[in-house]
Amino acid sequence: MQCKDLELVVESEGLVLLTSEAREHLTLCPACRGFVSDLEFIAAAARAIPAEIEPPAHVWTSLRAQLEAEGLIKEPVTALEGVPSRIWPRWFGLRSLITATAGAALLAAVLLLTHTPVAPRAPAAGTPAQAPVQTNDSAPSPLAAPPAAPAPSLAALSVPKAAFSAKRHSSGPTASRIKELAPSPSEDAGTTFAPSPVDQDFPDMELAGNSQVDASLRQNLRTLNEFIAECERHLKENPHDQLAREYLYTAYQQKADLLATMMDSARSEH
Amino acid sequence: MYALCLRMVGNPADAEDLMQEAFLQLYRKIGTFRGESAFSTWLHRMTVNVVLMRLRKKTLPTDSLEETLEPDSESSGPKRDVGAPDLRLSGAVDRVNLERSIEKLPPGYRTVFVLHDVQGYEHNEIADIMGCSVGNSKSQLHKARTRLRELLQEEIREQAREERKAAKTQSGSLD
Amino acid sequence: MQPATNPRYSPRHTLYIWSAGLLLFAASTAIAGAPEHQERRFTVKGHPVVVLQNIVNGRIEVKSAPNSEVIVASTAPADQVAMDIEQVGDRIDISASALHPSAQAEDPEADFQLTVPEQTELQLKTQTGLIYVEQVTGDMKLESVAGDIHLKEVSGYIIVKTTGGSLRCTLCSGKLEFTSISGNAQVLQPALTNVSLMTTSGNILYDGDFIRTGIYSMKSGKGVVEVRFSGSDSFDLNAQTNYGTVDNQAAEFLKPDTHVHRHVASRYAHSLFGTVGQGLAKVELSSYSGTIRILKRN
């Protein structure tokens, strides 16, 4: 067998199933031995390279936005809707309610015990027994239901939310939108960048029941917007600066993720 | 999918775009999957097509894509230098060098190499994905490995040259 | 006509009863709102996966133990936080969310202490509390909005994502990926083979070795990127900043770039290319407008 014959065998059969003739040639030819050894090394090194790499999370966010924009998927129902609540939290909630009610009943019992029997009075004067059914601005009855928590203004919430979701579908920060706003260097150098309109909805929108989270999200959105504005200004004058373009692209992707997080917070809250 | 895209185009930004595009295609065409091949094969075929279409649109600095997908009419064989450094023994070939060298392969070689040696597909599956014959797949793989060998040998020679230069400079400064 | 007084009750007696009643009422209200401590144990085999979504404030602490069980200890007010824990095979899903988010004046908190087998895969998500993980060697994905993340002696494929929280990673190995908008990253005494740190306005400090063949990428939009290496390191350096400065305090250890054909200096950026040792690892530092600092540890 010649060296070129061995090569044909390796090409057609691979490195594992070499014929006896090929193996014999390898024992006699150091050059071919080195060649096969090198190819085996390369194949082994390649096998050690991870076959799967997890893509960055913003890819999934952008993909989801694009799929929703194309109507290929619908917005998922949040996990809590329609799911029967677990016994555990319900039981604990009931227990605390019973405890609080027992305490209130005890206090009412104390009041009754110390009540001095008096002759019936004119209705205008009122009696403690009648107090629960009368509204008393200065001293609300302990037996009355606790005042309802101030409900968030629906007008303030629903309009921006609807506007936001409509805008998300039409001009949300999907990858294609990002590409529109951050063209590659081969495109026209005179391209101008348009800021995302979704920012305008957030100042009035209550993002989450968690005030700390809300503040953090807003602050970070401001940080990103400032950075994006800075990069855009720079790129207007220097459109071929690849480093700045990469930073701008990354900032857009971070903003897409942040807006998705803000939307999730708002959805879980309301 | 992402790993395949990344290794074929060499940069994360393009790989993310391509992966997203491939998934969009998947969603759009899911109704056309007839189960004639494994789902993963179908998915990878879609991905490879998306990537190859993108590569065709770009102007490649060296080999064109079409050339590397067709088997060579003349097999000139790899250059085998007697006395070339043995990759296994050098210790300087590592994953970094290998990944850099993979990026330098022509797209057709790179695709087959990544699918076979990195992703673990068999030649019949690669032929299905790439739309070529099994023989073509084997041939491309062999050429990819041979070319990688040349690139890595060049890398080792360059490192050795730099080390000799550095050693010379040091001994010169000590004098 | 004078109102008749009840001869059985003196004023002092009345006062005692009132006080007792009020105290009991206050106690019952306090009990109703007090944090509840719960502990649950789950037997697992192999490499378990623990997924914790804490959509309220609170701290998450994870440590390993040589037992084949996952212990979930939680502290949260039962009337404010809904807790849900489910096991399917070796996967344990834990979630904590506010029961009535709009009705609460203060943000509720749920703290978790998890004890897991060493090779557990973790997926933790919280809003503002600290995430602390020690001596866990499975892959992990940690997300936080404003809470910090502290890792000690962990290994695996570590993905950390925060909006404003900072990362501190000590004696970690494996691969690390960190992205944040305003959080900082401190990586101390690592044995990481692949590092990717990206923050838009935070700072980055990498104080450790660069492993042969490793790839290290550290980018900050506006913050400082500081790298401290040792004399035995061997890496190829590529540092670029548009509006910031490159503070090279290790000039005597940096040789001219030995791989010139791979580096293309941008005319818009201040760049520094060089090689330490044989250049076996790859280090890329970048800051849009912050300072890049390179120095050698003594």
What order do the helices and strands come in, and which of them pair?
The complex is a heterotrimer of chains A (270), B (175) and C (298).
Chain A: H1 3-13, H2 20-28, H3 30-48, H4 57-69, H5 87-113, H6 154-171, H7 175-181, H8 211-237, H9 242-269
Chain B: H1 2-9, H2 12-29, H3 39-57, H4 65-69, H5 87-90, H6 95-104, H7 107-118, H8 123-130, H9 134-174
Chain C: H1 11-33, E1 35-43, E2 49-54, E3 60-64, E4 69-77, E5 81-88, E6 91-98, E7 111-116, E8 121-126, E9 131-134, E10 140-144, E11 149-152, E12 155-162, E13 167-170, E14 173-180, E15 185-188, E16 191-199, E17 204-207, E18 215-220, E19 225-229, E20 235-241, E21 246-248, E22 270-276, E23 281-287, E24 292-296
- Structural class estimated from helices and strands of chain C: mainly beta
* Percent strand of chain C: over 45%
Instruction: State the shape of chain B.
Output: elongated
Radius of gyration of chain C: 27 Å
Helix and strand run of chain B: HHHHHHHHH
Please tell me about this protein's structure.
The complex is a heterotrimer of chains A (270), B (175) and C (298). With 270 residues, chain A is mainly alpha-helical. Helices cover 59% and strands 0% of the residues of chain A. Chain A contains nine helices and no strands. Chain A has helices spanning 3-13, 20-28, 30-48, 57-69, 87-113, 154-171, 175-181, 211-237, 242-269. The longest helix of chain A is centred in the last third of the chain and has 28 residues, at 242-269. Chain A is elongated, with a radius of gyration of 35 Å. In chain B, helix 3 (39-57) crosses helix 8 and helix 7 packs across helix 9. Chain C contains one helix and 24 strands. A twelve-stranded mixed β-sheet of chain C has the order 1-4-7-3-9-11-13-15-17-19-24-21. Chain C has a twelve-stranded mixed β-sheet with strand order 5-6-2-8-10-12-14-16-18-23-20-22, with no helix packed on it. In chain C, a hairpin with a 2-residue loop joins strand 5 and strand 6. The radius of gyration of chain C is 27 Å and the shape is elongated. Classes of the chains: A mainly alpha (270), B mainly alpha (175), C mainly beta (298). The interface between A and B is large, with 42 and 42 residues.
